[in-house]
Amino acid sequence: MNVIEAKCRGRGIRLTGQRRLIAQVLSEATDHPDAAELHRRVVQRDAGISLATVYRTVKRFEAEGILEKHGFHDGPARYEPTSKAHHDHLIDADTGLVIEFKNEAVEELQREIARQLGFDLVGHRLVLYGRRLKGKGRGKSKG
């Protein structure tokens, strides 16, 4: 049983064969696919699954807290399994590649800004957009 399927079962979500396949493809993803890309991957295994079924399924999984929906810039919504491990994202403005990162100095700066403004930080979402410097290597990427 994959991670998403296990979360569905834990929340009492009935898993049809189509939902199970969508959950499997999402669990195997090493990137942040949008619904169209997810559909492309799913129909390679079952041509009978419609794009509408993919949209309904990701919407349900999102509503149940199983998937996290990201709206990066002006592109389509992209999805990743909900995780307790916080991370931020850097988006390659030229390719759309999503790079996950964690930086404790950035985290502390955000907490300090909140404190200075009289708040206790309870959550945040940081998305950076950039262009690769010439001659620089790749970070941990999850497109």
Automatic annotation (TrEMBL):
The UniProt record lists the keyword Iron: yes
Protein's cellular compartments: Cytoplasm
The keyword Endoplasmic reticulum is assigned to this record: no
One Pfam family per UniProt: FUR
Membrane-traversing stretches: none
Keywords annotated in UniProt: Cytoplasm, DNA-binding, Iron, Metal-binding, Repressor, Transcription, Transcription regulation, Zinc
Assembly, per entry: Homodimer.
Family: Belongs to the Fur family.
The protein's name in its UniProt record: Ferric uptake regulation protein
Taxonomic placement: Bacteria, Pseudomonadati, Pseudomonadota, Alphaproteobacteria, Hyphomicrobiales
